[in-house]
Amino acid sequence: MSENTRMTRAATKRKASTAFATADENPVGKKRVVLGELTNVVAPNQEREIHKPKSTLTPAKKQTKNAPIPPPPGSVDPQMCGPYVADICAYLREMEGRLKQRPLHDYIEKVQNDITPSMRGVLVDWLVEVAEEYKLVSDTLYLTVSYVDRFLSAKPIHRQRLQLVGVSAMLIASRKYEEISPPKVEDFVYITDNTFTRQDVVSMEADILLALQFELGCPTIKTFLRRFTRVAQEDFNESLLQLEFLCCYLSELSLLDYSCVKFLPSLLAASAVFLARFIIRPKQHPWSQMLEEYTKYKASDLQQCVGIIHDLYLSRRGNVLEAVRNKYKQHKFKCVATMPVSPELPLAFFEDVTIRDKA
Fold it and tell me: Using CA of residue 171, residue 172, residue 173, residue 176, what is the dihedral sign?
């Protein structure tokens, strides 16, 4: 190798090193986000205690999952694993019911001394914004909230460290499980306005992993929603994307409400499908024999959960939490958050299919 070639390569390495150092010292266009100290009550006319990530935030390009495209009539989608679907669903239903995979339904009352349901709602609302800014797949968001609830079911923490739990759980969900190109630890530190150090995040990550006993692969609402929406579309002529986006919107709304922690992910997914079909076709019964057989839930099993999500949709609950609503007001989600819905759910819709058919 000639002396000139060695000098050229050395100069190139020095130039690249200088460029990365400059980028690290001066992140281009990033706007940090502070969650701040949470309070017990967030008034509707009071300024929220978090600052949204600005559109100027420029994380590295992430690979996103596009909405699934339904197969042509008469064909089979191999990704849905048709020959094994019964065994897969049975395994997922068994897995979601394991105690070590479930948070306590009353962990705030029994375990936590300094956290309230409204604080949890503010945290989840902020995590939705962070996931949007970093273009994380929806599975990462669902896993993050699951990890947060399971960790808080096992270990009491101070409210000032609740945001640290959230970003550390998202770090685990993105880096250890879902994302191909996840954000770096420094990204999560920076987005909290450096409220926490890199060591804080890494230490909390270890605490969460130990509390979860490294059981990270739990089924979420999204796991069941993918299959339930396919069945829900069978007797629907409306856009599959509209139904899927509306179901996703309702499911993410349920993440905000602490009272939904007690429901299994499969029941939340079935309730989202029930309510989505009602919103799109308010005069048609939203449940069917096929949906009952596939989801293993009768309409009467869904009444309480559907009522809670319906109240969330109408802003009767969590009306100060806007991240999910703003997300699904976008055209790329077909503005499903703006669809009108009846303020009342007909009680007749919650009758069992067999009883209704006999009548």
Answer: positive
